[in-house]
Amino acid sequence: MSRGKLVVTVKEFAAMTGIGQNRVREFCYLPDFPASKEGNRFIIHVEAANEWLRRRTSAKTGVDTAGLKHILP
Q: Which superkingdom is the protein from (predicted)?
């Protein structure tokens, strides 16, 4: 069942997506982004973040992303 990590750091998420670390940190402060603060760092739930990016992309572009399997690896 090793499909990868369930949660990742800001740095790991940025590397997965190609989004800059500063922008990912900005996402972490949004109330609907699936991240939580653990001590002095954020952890991001990968599957939920994948779905969040799909919804955000669909809303901003008007493109239906339902047929896409994964945005993140």
A: Bacteria
